[in-house]
Amino acid sequence: MWLLRLNLPLITLLLSVALTLSSAQQASTSPSIVFISPEQIKDTGEQVTLNCSIANVKNYIVGWQKSNRDRTKESNIISLGVQLAVTEDRFRLNFTKENNAANYVLEIHDIVNTDAGLYECQIQVNSTSKITKTVELQVRHPPMLLENQHTNTLTKAEGEDAQLVCRAEGYPRPSIAWRREYNAILPIGGQTFTGNELRLNGLRREDRGTYYCTADNGVGRPDTKTITLEVEFAPVIRVPRPKVAQAVDYDIDVECVVQAFPAPAIAWYRDGKQIHNGGAYSISQIGSPDDVTTSVVKIHSVAAEHYGDYVCKATNKVGQAEARLNLFEQNVPNINYSGLKWANDGTSTRSVVLGHMLIVTVTLLLATLL
Q: 239-329: what fold?
């Protein structure tokens, strides 16, 4: 017993050395990846060789698998052991082994854009652990705007903020530039803006229209998409002729010009009562660019009860507006009105016109003689 107590430190030291030697021996016989190819950058149509060298490979299973750069999707198994797991003949696997060291060489021919990603060489140590190293393959290809990353039409109310977004993939990483149709000045100033997101604060109706985002990386042709910005605003009414004159029994038009988005409902009123198509009235709406609608009321064979004030009222989801104009009587027909109707056979009106012409002629003659 005394001898055992004296030799305890020696026994502990011997056990420690034995464990260290055992661990070192086990580590020296464990598999490891001693080399993997560095990052590869290729053009479409080229080929690439990815090499993974294993030490102490023994009977461990080695494989290649591919994932996208941000690892947001499931990985695709390329090979297991010496067998390819993909059916495309563009992929080839070469295997060599010597003195318990092995090389697993993956070849990809006729490279396409979707071949880009992270290629991982794996040694399956057991059911729960594996040894891995990764090489990235970059494929140079033209930019492509992502359809699910932008909207073709964006609708906002006047005064709100808007954010136009475009994102693209490609290698090298594309830059994105913004411009307006006809190279109009952007709401933030200047004709172009560079960045994925174009932020517009406090929208005005003048900001509506077509915007273009263009992705370019110097490879192939740039990719361009169109975004339409719609700005909703309440109607604004303009009356080209606030006062209109016409003689009895002749036609005349009264009109108002409305600018609004969404398109407004336009109604006409006379003495507080709405005017409808039929009888003496014909109402028409004429659309034009820039969200402008011209509403025209044609009054057929003007009578005494048609004189007075007319109200044009426009309404949409944002608001409403109204404007007033006046139709009054004059003895001489309004010959400046393009829709003038010649009464009966036209004799009386022609006589009036000829009378005016005669008065003008005599006046000019007298002025010349004097």
A: Immunoglobulin-like (2.60.40)
127 band by pLDDT with thresholds 50, 70 and 90: confident
pLDDT in tens, 217-260: 999 999 999 999 999 999 999 999 999 999 999 999 999 999 99
First to last CA, the chain: 158
* CA–CA dist 142, 222 (Å, integer): 7
CA torsion angle for 142, 148, 154, 155 (degrees, to 10)? 180
252 contacts 241 by C-beta, under 8 angstroms: no
- Residue 82: phi and psi, rounded to 5, are -105, 15
Q: What is the mean pLDDT of residues 322-333?
A: 95
Establish whether the linkage from the previous residue to 240 is cis, with ω within 30° of 0. Answer: no
CATH fold of 32-141: Immunoglobulin-like (2.60.40)
Name the residue with higher pLDDT: 289 or 302. Answer: 302
Least confident of 38-42, 116-120, 311-315, 342-346: 342-346
Residue 278 β-bridge partners: 281
Classify 182 in phi/psi space as left (phi over 0), alpha (psi -120 to 50) or beta: left
Pairing of strands 175-180, 130-145: unpaired
Q: How many CB atoms within 10 Å of residue 152? A: 9
Domain ranges of the chain: 32-141, 146-233, 239-329
Domains 146-233 and 239-329 equal at CATH topology level: yes
Three-state DSSP state, 366: helix
Q: What is the rounded CA–CA span in Å between residue 188 and residue 205?
A: 14
| 354 backbone dihedrals φ, ψ, rounded to 5° | -60, -35
Fold of 146-233: Immunoglobulin-like (2.60.40)
Which candidate, 68, 62, 174, places its Cα nearest to that of 119? 68
Amino acid (one-letter) located at 5: R
Q: Token pair for residue 261? A: 């988005």
* CA distance linking residue 44 with residue 114, whole number of Å: 10
Decide: helix, strand or coil at residue 116: coil
